[in-house]
């Protein structure tokens, strides 16, 4: 993966999310446009770059929220681990793949956020409960997944700019990243 | 990089982020916020303006304007009256407060004299209720400063850096403010007076997604004080907020129902009069009177005095609407 393309994507998607956040809200649900970008990187790039790419996007998103720093970096790292694991088993360019993987990723992020909302006040002996409505969190996950095929279809058209290596190419894919497990 | 050595890099990153997210208090990790906001503004600001214009034209924010119109049974042209009512409510509460304070110890009076306008860059990227604004530490903005808009209180500065600042909105989950109910009562002579409604001190808690809730008022108190949808709630928190912003409108009651967990208590749902997520500009109460920007004018020496007139403060990043021209 070309890192320059990754940084341009990260810049653009964060800027677009900044611009549209608040306007795309539907009831309690607000989409997360950064997550499909993280899934796109994780589903296409090699393991190392996919994990670092997803983690980096989460860290960038952390800079613009009221959540504790590192929450989204951690969540997106988890998403990266999950999506990288599914790479060999999925058809990467199919909209249904985009929808279901993003849905699963969104639910994973939602679970981590809910757990943080529950655990943070306990760990810090704070009497201020910061419970976000759980229904809203999961509605946002569904909203994000619904937008994912559109966004990832758009990213897919620019795939060549990222220089992802084909899974079956001699130097790429599982051959080159296969773990040297003992 | 081998599989194993990469794991040795990635695993500590994940552990560090988990420790930061769960174990380190957010006050210690927010130092890095507001450092990169401005980098994204070349794309985010014009796009946000475009989206705002489009949503206004298509009537997507019609609900907000209707809420604003319904606030005092007033019609369209009386937006200014609504603004004056906020000022009257604020000053009514401030007078009580100032009686208790020594002269000169804290600020009082009209808020616009002590605040600076700043453009809004974006709202929160992860569904929380916050705003990223185009204010920096160099502008005299500091953590904890109140933020207001024409329709009332917006929130508080939660982080500030060299390239931006974050505002935690009053509707954010975990936000807690003491308030005071009140309503405007029409006098026989036709004037409207802001009358506080006597109840025990309501604790306004943010519920996220633009909503606030009060759960510490009993149903009996609600009935006795005749609280109803449309009544105002204003800030009345002497400990956590400066006197200048006391009395600022937090929102209005949209619904009163019995609390599910305790039917003797009420659940009063409140909403600000505008969608705080989509504000275009906010005022940060810096406590200092804004100074007029220096105007460089090429004019003869005798005309310079007349040319450089103080101007109304403009939001940072926007040009003054009228350029000062030399006389003649």
Largest sheet of chain B, if any? 6 strands, antiparallel, barrel
End-to-end gap of chain A: 28 Å
Please state how the strands of the largest beta sheet of chain B are arranged side by side: 1-2-5-4-3-13
Q: β content of chain A, as a range?
A: under 5%
Quaternary form: heterodimer
Q: What do the pLDDT scores of chain B average to?
A: 77
Helical residue percent of chain A? Answer: 55-70%
The arrangement of helices and strands of chain A along the chain is: HHHHHHHH
Order of helices and strands of chain B: HHHHHEEEEEEEEEHEEEEH
How are the SSEs placed, and which strands pair?
The complex is a heterodimer of chains A (182) and B (328).
Chain A lengths: L2 H18 L13 H11 L2 H16 L8 H16 L8 H29 L10 H24 L1 H4 L10 H5 L5
Helix pairs in contact in A: 2-3, 2-4, 2-5, 2-6, 3-4, 4-5, 5-6
Chain B lengths: L2 H20 L3 H4 L7 H22 L3 H9 L8 H22 L14 E9 L6 E4 L12 E4 L2 E9 L4 E5 L6 E11 L5 E5 L6 E6 L2 E4 L4 H7 L6 E4 L13 E10 L7 E6 L9 E5 L15 H7 L21
Antiparallel strand pairs in B: 1-2, 1-13, 2-5, 3-4, 3-13, 4-5, 6-7, 6-8, 6-10, 8-9, 9-12, 10-11, 11-12
């Amino acid at each position: 993966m070309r890192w320059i393309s990754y940084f341009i994507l990260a810049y653009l998607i964060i800027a677009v999310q900044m611009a549209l956040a608040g306007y795309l809200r539907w009831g309690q649900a607000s989409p997360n446009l950064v997550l499909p970008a993280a899934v796109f990187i994780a589903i296409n790039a090699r393991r190392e770059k996919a994990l670092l790419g997803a983690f980096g996007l989460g860290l960038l998103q952390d800079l613009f929220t009221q959540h504790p720093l590192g929450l989204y970096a951690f969540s997106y790292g988890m998403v990266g681990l999950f999506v990288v694991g599914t790479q060999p088993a999925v058809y990467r360019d199919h909209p249904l793949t985009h929808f279901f993987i993003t849905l699963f990723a969104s639910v994973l992020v939602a679970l981590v956020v809910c757990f943080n909302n529950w655990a943070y006040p306990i760990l810090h002996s704070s009497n201020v409960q910061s419970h976000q409505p759980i229904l809203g969190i999961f509605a946002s996950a569904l909203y994000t997944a619904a937008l994912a095929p559109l966004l990832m279809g758009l990213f897919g058209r620019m795939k060549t700019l990222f220089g992802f290596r084909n899974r079956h190419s001699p130097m790429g894919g599982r051959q080159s990243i296969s773990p040297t497990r003992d | 990089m081998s599989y194993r050595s990469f794991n040795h890099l990635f695993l500590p990153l994940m552990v560090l982020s988990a420790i930061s997210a769960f174990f380190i208090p957010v006050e210690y990790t927010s130092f890095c916020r507001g450092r990169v906001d401005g980098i994204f503004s070349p794309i985010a600001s014009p796009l946000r303006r475009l989206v705002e214009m489009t949503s206004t034209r298509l009537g997507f924010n019609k609900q907000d304007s209707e809420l604003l119109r319904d606030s005092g049974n007033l019609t369209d042209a009386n937006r200014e009256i609504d603004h004056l009512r906020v000022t009257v409510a604020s000053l009514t509460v401030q007078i009580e407060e100032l009686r208790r304070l020594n002269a000169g110890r804290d600020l009082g009076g009209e808020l616009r004299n002590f605040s600076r306008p700043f453009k809004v860059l974006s709202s929160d990227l992860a569904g929380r209720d916050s705003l990223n604004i185009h204010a920096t530490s160099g502008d005299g903005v500091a953590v904890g400063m109140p933020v207001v808009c024409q329709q009332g209180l917006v929130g508080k500065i939660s982080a500030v850096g060299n390239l931006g600042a974050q505002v935690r909105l009053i509707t954010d989950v975990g936000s807690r403010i003491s308030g005071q109910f009140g309503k405007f009562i029409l006098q026989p002579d036709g004037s409207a007076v802001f009358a506080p409604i006597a109840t025990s001190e309501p604790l306004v808690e943010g519920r996220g997604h633009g909503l606030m809730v009060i759960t510490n008022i009993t149903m009996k108190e609600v009935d006795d004080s005749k609280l109803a949808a449309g009544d105002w709630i204003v800030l009345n928190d002497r400990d956590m907020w400066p006197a200048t912003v006391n009395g600022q409108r937090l929102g209005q009651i949209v619904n009163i129902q019995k609390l599910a967990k305790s039917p003797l208590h009420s659940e009063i749902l409140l909403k600000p009069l505008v969608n705080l997520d989509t504000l275009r500009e906010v005022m940060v109460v810096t406590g200092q009177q804004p100074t007029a920007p220096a105007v460089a004018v090429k004019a003869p020496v005798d005309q310079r005095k007349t040319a450089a007139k103080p101007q109304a403060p403009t939001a940072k990043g926007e040009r003054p609407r009228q350029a000062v021209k030399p006389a003649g």
